[in-house]
Structures are given as C-alpha cells and as structure tokens.
Design brief:
The structure holds two protein chains of two kinds.
Chain A lengths: L1 H5 L1 H47 L10 E3 L2 E5 L5 E11 L2 E8 L5 E11 L4 E9 L5 E8 L13 H4 L12 E3 L2 H6 L3 E3 L5 H23 L1
Parallel strand pairs in A: 8-9
Antiparallel strand pairs in A: 1-2, 2-3, 3-4, 4-5, 5-6, 6-7
Chain B lengths: L7 H9 L12 H6 L4 H24 L9 H23 L1 H7 L10 H11 L4 H31 L1 E2 L2 E2 L14 H33 L1
Helix pairs in contact in B: 1-7, 3-4, 3-6, 3-7, 4-5, 4-6, 6-7, 7-8
The chains are: A alpha+beta, B mainly alpha.
C-alpha cells in the first residue's frame, strides 16, 4: 500500500484524472463550436476573395456584398462587378473558382492552405490567376506568431510581396532587398521573423504545387 | 501560531485596489500594454481573463486537499490552459473579429502570472467562497487597470471611447498613443500617479497615528 502511494501513479493520479476530464471538456467544446468557427472562417474567406483576385482593380473602400454564390464588388472605375464563386476541393485544399457573372469568364482561383508556423498553425488564402501561372494575392486567415515580429506576416506590407510572384516555380525567402526587387519569386523576409516568413512561403509553395499538379492531371 | 488567512470580503477588496494586480503587483503587464489601444479589445481581454481566473480559482480550491506540493504548479497550469482554450474557442465562435484583433494575446493568458499567483496564494489554501471572492476582486482590479490605460490611450489617440467620438474633430489626435510607445508612456505615468497617491495616503495615516499616539 505504501509502495503504491510512493509510485508515480500514486503521486500523479490527480494530474492524470484532471488531464482526462479537461481533455474531454475541450473535445466537447470543439465539437460544439467547430461548425460555427468554420462558418466564420468561410465568411471571412468569401469577403477576401475580391481583393485576392481583383487586387488594385478593386476600390479599397468597397464593401463586398454576398448574395448566395455571388459577390458584388465596387471597382476603381466607379462600376460594380459581380463575381460568381464556385467551391470545390482540389488535392485536399478548399478552392474557390472565381468567374465574372456577366460573361462567365474565369478570373482566377483562391485556395486555402495551412501549415506549421514558428508558434502555431498558420492558415492562408492564396489568389491565383485563371491559368494558375501567377500569384495575385495572399491573405492570412489565422496565425499566432510572435507579437510585433512574426505577426507581421498578416500585414499588407508582407502579403503584398507575393503579388506578381510566379506560380510555376517555388517562391523563396531572401534577406537581400535588391534580390527581392529584381526577382519576383524572391520574397523579402520580415526582419527578425525569418522562420515565420519561410513558413508562409512553404505553405504557399505546397498549396500552389498541389493545385497545379492536380489540374495538370 | 497559525497565520490568520484573509476573509472573503478582505480578499475581494484587496484585489481591487490595495493589491491591484497591475498597479500594486506589476502582474499582467503583457495584456496591459498590448491590448489597451482601445476599450473594446481591453474589455474583451478582461472578460476572458476573468473567466479563466474565476474557473481556475474554483477548481483549485475544490481540489486543494488533494494537491501534492511538488505537483501543484502542473495542476495549476493544466487547469488554466484548459479554460484559456475554452475562452479562445468561444471568442472565435461568437466574437470572431475581436478574436482576430486580439490574436495571440488570448492564448497568452496561460502565462499571465496574475492567475497562477491567485491559485497559489489563495485558491490552494482557502475554501471555495473565499477563492471566488478573490477571483472576482482581482478581476475587477484588472478591469480597473486596463480600463484606465485604455481610456487615456483611446481618447488621446483616436478621440473616442468605446468607439464613440468624445473629442471634437478639431482636437489633434496623438497617433503615438495607440502605438506601443503610447502604452509604455501611459502605464508609466499612471503607475507613478498611483504610487504617489499611495505614498501620500500612507504618510497621512502615519502622521495621524503619530498625533493620536
């Protein structure tokens, strides 16, 4: 009896019981809330599609209005463009095909990707042109990188560095400004956050490569 | 001789001003500096922290007789981490834009020393009622601290309070106040003010006692 009390199990039984109870609680919370959280993420994804596809052609102050599968967006020319969004799964990625509602012309693709960052999982949206040859935009859906350093990956300054990068070859991180300026596939890293910058590039490369290889087949 | 532990009322009152976690104990500095650019994120952080603190204190107090001294920190951390995750998921589900705005600062509640110190100092030694009063008092103290910093920063930096405009358009906005230096400046000045007031009060009390004596 004394041996049992002195054993690891006897010492740590409370920790083990609490871990089981808390684990069960968290599983319950996850099951109860995951649909709602996923719906929030989807709504945010849809609201970001126009800027990822239209880029500078979109009025930066424009409100994006969603009617079922149609996004109404104000462009810089004071006119309104209506985008139709069709969701599909390609190579395990949630992908949205974006077409112009008026003539059915395909404008591009928006794909969701995820991967490990410096601190936690990073989830991104990457915009691609209609032929999947160029990156048209990047948005960070969720990240928990170091405040004031790695969390810069979610800011427009860093995201803008991916616009115009080729999709047919991997993007690479560089710390040299002149190299990044000369070559579109070279992405200038955030100062003191090279791992976060590299993580985003890896997620972009993996997402784009998966989609391209599936489409080529 | 056994040390007399504070009563529930004493714990409650102490947490608000005499032992204010931010101004008197300098705990919880990370959220105090990081999320006080405006009142809305500051109050959301207070609500999440209060939820975690109250739940952690209650659980710790309930199991206090089962705690082994060398494993107590593990139990505190496990308890706090669980409730932080619950708070984080609820924010993501019901206050999505605020959850995005607060970013990593909600998960960082796990390492807020204010919470683990209340588990150690009060909840692991006293009954549930006292632990609850302590958690509520400290939460109110934390709210007072974050609200004071956020009020100064939002009004001077944005001209608004809780998003409502309170300064006329002609009043120049101090952009610095909503940036990190504004947080350090505001907290430093408010800390100096609170310390000066506490010292003045103490010296007056000492003078009064001297006169009586």
């Amino acid at each position: 009896m004394a041996n049992l009390r002195e054993s690891y199990l006897g010492q740590a039984w409370l920790v083990l019981v609490l871990a089981l109870v808390f684990g069960g609680t968290l599983a319950g919370v996850h099951v109860g809330l995951k649909d709602r959280i996923e719906a929030n993420l989807r709504a945010e994804t849809l609201s970001r599609i126009p800027e990822l596809i239209l880029g500078t052609k979109m009025d930066q102050e424009a409100q994006v209005v969603l009617f079922e599968d149609t996004l109404q967006v104000q462009t810089t020319g004071e006119s309104t463009v209506e985008l139709r969004v069709a969701e599909q799964e390609i190579a395990g990625h949630q992908v949205f095909e974006v077409t112009e509602k008026a003539n059915g012309a395909r404008l591009g693709w928006v794909a969701r990707g995820a991967g490990q960052g410096y601190a936690d999982q990073i989830e991104i949206l990457v915009g691609l042109d209609s032929e999947v040859e160029e990156i048209t935009g990047l948005y960070v859906l969720s990240q928990k990188e170091t405040p004031a350093l790695g969390d810069g990956i979610a800011k427009p300054l860093f995201r803008g560095r991916f616009v115009g990068a080729p999709a047919d070859r991997p993007v690479e991180v560089t710390k040299v400004e002149t190299v990044a300026a000369a070559e579109p596939s070279q992405i200038l890293a955030l100062t003191a956050a090279t791992i976060s910058s590299q993580s985003v590039c890896d997620i972009v490369n993996r997402t784009v490569a998966d989609i391209r290889s599936e489409m080529q087949q | 001789m056994a040390i007399q532990e504070p009563t529930a009322v004493e714990r409650f009152i102490n947490g608000i001003i005499p032992e204010n976690p931010v101004y008197r104990q300098l705990l919880g500095m990370c959220p105090t500096l990081a999320v006080t650019a405006a009142m809305k994120p500051a109050m959301t952080m207070v609500a999440a922290t209060a939820f975690v603190l109250i739940c952690a204190n209650l659980i710790t107090s309930l199991i206090r007789h089962l705690l082994k001294p060398h494993l107590r920190i593990v139990v505190f951390t496990l308890t706090i981490a669980t409730f932080v995750t619950v708070a984080d998921r609820f924010l993501a589900a019901f206050a999505y834009s605020m959850s995005k705005e607060l970013g990593p600062y909600v998960p960082l509640i796990i390492v807020n020393c204010m919470i683990i110190s209340r588990c150690e100092v009060c909840a692991s030694k006293q009954r549930v009622g006292v632990a609850l009063a302590d958690a509520v008092g400290v939460s109110l103290g934390f709210m007072l601290a974050l609200a004071s910093v956020a009020t100064v920063r939002e009004i001077l930096g944005l001209g608004s309070w809780f998003g409502l405009q309170v300064l006329p358009d002609g009043f120049p906005r101090w952009g610095l106040m909503v940036m990190p230096p504004g947080a350090f400046l505001t907290l430093g000045l408010l800390l100096a003010l609170v310390t000066w007031m506490a010292r003045r009060r103490a010296s007056r009390q000492a003078a009064a006692t001297g006169e009586v004596g």
